[in-house]
Amino acid sequence: MTQAKYSLDHIRLRLNQLDDQLLNILSERRALSIEVAKSKVETAKPVRDAAREQELLVKLINNGKEKYQLDANYITKLFHTIIEDSVLLQQSYLQNLVNPQDSRQPLVRVAFLGSKGSYSHLASREYFSRKNNELIELNCHHFKDIATTVETGHADFGVLPIENTSSGSINEVYDLLQNTTLYIVGEMTLPIEHCLLAQQDIRIEDIKTLYSHPQPHQQCSEFLSHLDGVTLESCASTADAMKKVKALNRNDVAAIGNSSSGKLYGLQKIQGNIANQTENHTRFIVVARKSVEVSPQIPAKTTIIMSTSHQAGSLVETLLVLQRYGINMTKLESRPIMGNPWEEMFYVDLEAHLDSQPMQQALAELTKITRHLKVLGCYPIENVKPTSIDLEV
C-alpha cells in the first residue's frame, strides 16, 4: 500500500490556503473588469468582444495543457463562468451610468409569486443579487396580484415567470401583459430542478396526494403518469405546496419543488430529476412602472405586442418588415384578445435596441400596417451565451 506523502490535515490546510488565494485573485480580476467597463465608456466599444473572448480561451486551453496538464473541458467550464460574471459586471456598471436613479436605490421592494423558497422567489434573489440591491420581499398568491402591487406603487419591481423549456409559455402571464401599464425592464433564466419532497423518507408507492403549482405538474407529467392512485392538488406556488406538506405532517403526502427550498420547510428529497426534460429552465421577466434606458454598448432585447388585420398574409407582412431590417425574432406568441372573439394579440421578442435606427424604422413601418402596436419594454440581455470555440485546439 502506497504511503501518503502528506497527512490529511496538512493537505486540507494547503487546500484552504490555495482556495483563499483563488478568492483573492478572482476579486482582483472582478475589479479589473470594472476598469475595462470604464475604458469602454470612453471608447464606446460594446461589452462583448467575441474575437477577444475566443482568443483568450484558446490561449488558456493551450497553456493549461502544456504547463499544468489541465483538461480543456475543465478550463472551458471555469472560464465560461468567469467571462459571464465579467460581462454582467460590465453591463451593470454601464446600466448604472444611464440609469443613475437606480444606482441610488440600494433598497428595493420586489413582488413575486408564492412564499419564501418558491422558484419565483429564487429568481428574484438571483436577479437582484447582481445589482447589489437589498430586498424587501413581497410574496403574492396570484400573477395579477404581482402586477397590481407594482402598479399601485407598493412594490418597485415584479418578477413573473413567462415560459418554460418543458411546459412552454405561461399563458396567464401573457394575458396579463395585454392590459398592464407596466414595462419589462429585465429578464433572467433559472434552472429548474424538480424533486419529490416529503416530511420523511417514504416510499413513492405510499404517496396518496401530491401538492405543487400547476406548472410543475405539467413539467413532470411523464413521471406523474407512472404513479398509481395519486391525487394531484394545485397550490399557489411550489413553496405553498411545501408548507402544506409540512403542516399535514403525514407519511402519504409529498410536494414537487426545489430540494434546497424544501430544507427551509424541513422536507427531504425522496427522488430527484423528475422533470420531463433534463435541461429544464424557466425564463422570468422583471416589470416596473417606468421603462429603463439601455446603454447602446449592451446587447438588448425589445418586446412588443401587436394585432394585425384579418386579411390573408397580414402577419407575414409584419415579419417581412423585421427581416428587411435584419432584426432577429426570438419569440412569437399569440393570445386571444379579451372581449374580441377570434381576434389575437401577438407578442414578439426582438434582439434589438429600441433606439437603434433599424428598430425605429421597423416600428414606423409596423405602426402603419398593424391595428395596434405597443412597446412593452427594452432591456439588457442578461443570458450570457458561452463563447464558442473548437475544443480541438
From TrEMBL:
UniProt pathway annotation: Metabolic intermediate biosynthesis; prephenate biosynthesis; prephenate from chorismate: step 1/1; Amino-acid biosynthesis; L-phenylalanine biosynthesis; phenylpyruvate from prephenate: step 1/1
Principal cellular location given in the protein's record: cytoplasm
Gene Ontology terms for molecular function: chorismate mutase activity; prephenate dehydratase activity
Subcellular location: Cytoplasm
Residue ranges of every copy of the ACT domain listed in the record: 303-380
Domain Chorismate mutase: 2-94
Domain called Prephenate dehydratase: residue spans: 109-289
Keyword Isomerase listed: yes
Gene Ontology cellular-component terms listed: cytoplasm
Reactions mediated catalytically: chorismate = prephenate; prephenate + H(+) = 3-phenylpyruvate + CO2 + H2O
Keyword Nucleotidyltransferase appears in the UniProt entry: no
Biological processes, Gene Ontology terms: chorismate metabolic process; L-phenylalanine biosynthetic process
PROSITE patterns given in the database record: ACT, CHORISMATE_MUT_2, PREPHENATE_DEHYDR_1, PREPHENATE_DEHYDR_2, PREPHENATE_DEHYDR_3
Keywords tagged on the record: Amino-acid biosynthesis, Aromatic amino acid biosynthesis, Cytoplasm, Isomerase, Lyase, Multifunctional enzyme, Phenylalanine biosynthesis
Gene3D superfamilies: 3.30.70.260, Chorismate mutase, Periplasmic binding protein-like II
Site-annotated residues for Essential for prephenate dehydratase activity: T282
EC id: 4.2.1.51, 5.4.99.5
Binding, substrate: R12, R29, K40, D49, E53, S86, Q90
Function: Catalyzes the Claisen rearrangement of chorismate to prephenate and the decarboxylation/dehydration of prephenate to phenylpyruvate.
Name of the protein this chain belongs to: Bifunctional chorismate mutase/prephenate dehydratase
Gene: pheA
